[in-house]
Design a protein that fits this description.
By secondary structure, this protein is mainly alpha-helical. It has helices at about 1-10, 20-45, 50-55, 60-70. The longest helix has 27 residues, at about 20-45.
């Protein structure tokens, strides 16, 4: 039984419904957009720690949104 699961994968893609696949795709795009914006801002503001954490951890956009709202450096005029 375990050998069969391992040979087929834990979650074979053929058993996922089209709706679930669409949800995964939407969540991946959502994460990529927020992560891209936050990484760009971190790089421009020279905030290496935030850059590394946002790059490593996938939090469905939560960590990048928190960074963008509360922790990014503000530009002084």
């Amino acid at each position: 039984m375990i050998g069969q699961l391992l040979s087929q994968g834990i979650f074979p893609m053929s058993t996922l419904s089209p709706g679930l696949l669409a949800l995964f795709l939407i969540l991946m795009i959502w994460e990529a957009i927020w992560k891209g914006i936050a990484l760009w801002k971190c790089g421009r503001n020279n905030q290496l720690t935030w850059f590394v954490f946002i790059l490593i951890f996938n939090t469905l956009g939560i960590l990048p949104i928190v960074y963008l709202l509360f922790f990014q450096k503000t530009k002084k005029k």
